[in-house]
Amino acid sequence: MHFAYPPRKSSSPPPFRPRSSKAPLLRRSRLRTAALVLLTILGVLYLLSGTSGPDPYHEHVPSGHPSVVIVTVIDPATYSNAYLKTVQENRKQYAAKHGYETFIAKADDYETGGYQRSWSKVMAMRHALSKFPDCKYIWYLDQDAYIMEPSRSVEGQVLAPRTLESLMIRDYPVVPPDSIIKTFAHLRGEDAGLIISQDKDGLASGSMFVRNGDWAKFVTETWMDPVYRKYNFQKAERHVLEHIVQWHPTIFSRIALVPQRTMASYTHTQLGDGYQEGDFVAMFKGCSILGDNSCGEESRRYWEKFQQAMAAA
């Protein structure tokens, strides 16, 4: 029986041809394109969802409780402890009567970088805004002053919008005597951010109101910028305030200037409007550290008047 032999393979096989790589490359290209399209779609959906949802950043809106925080910086190295005790009592008793809060700090609580200790008042104001985020106003009042009319609220004296508008000094040089920058003629009371008066030298920064909010934080942080301290202005933070008020539109646009006797009457009349019976605040600016003209001695009769007024209120 004969079997057919299978055909013999050629001893000369065809040359080797590598398998085509076009198909895998095409698949990888398509996968990349699909991935990019998918990422693009997801990105668009994320952006759309973000714009339709609530803004993740919200500036805190103060509730107004407390309505006012009285801020004072005391310096035991300058004034006697007995006098400073009356200053603190003056603030606390007045605040308690009207439902306000007090923030009493010491000058050495803050690092002023080797510059004048008076810079601590700006730092204390910023500190108070952080400590009382829901207050409506802070009232900075220097340590050389007493509140003299405890029956009056600060709202009735100056802060109520209509009252403030009736007091505003409009279209007037913001820093006397001849600043070309003049206060706004049409500022509304509810839009005022800094309420301040003038004395014979310039802005009377020993007594001023700052409305709480993002504007107040901006002002205080700009004011205490280390760059300004390095300028070495003659009157330190007071001259810096006058500088930024005149040359920074964001700050200047919300300045309300009021008559000095509204909240900063001076017992030394050569420095500004003199204190008269019935004025809201008596400031002993210019008193000495020691001697018969010391702040402690000068303040005695005003402290007695305040105590009598508290008893009668």
TrEMBL record:
Keyword presence, Glycosyltransferase:
yes
Keyword Hydrolase included in the entry's annotation: no
Q: What is this protein called?
A: Putative alpha-1,2-galactosyltransferase-like protein
| Swiss-Prot/TrEMBL GO biological process terms | protein N-linked glycosylation
Q: Where is the composition biased (Low complexity)?
A: 1-11
Q: Describe the family membership recorded for this protein in Swiss-Prot or TrEMBL.
A: Belongs to the glycosyltransferase 34 family.
Q: Where is the organism placed in the taxonomic lineage, from the top?
A: Eukaryota, Fungi, Dikarya, Ascomycota, Pezizomycotina
A Gene Ontology MF term for this entry?
Answer: alpha-1,6-mannosyltransferase activity
Keywords (A to Z) from UniProt: Glycosyltransferase, Transferase
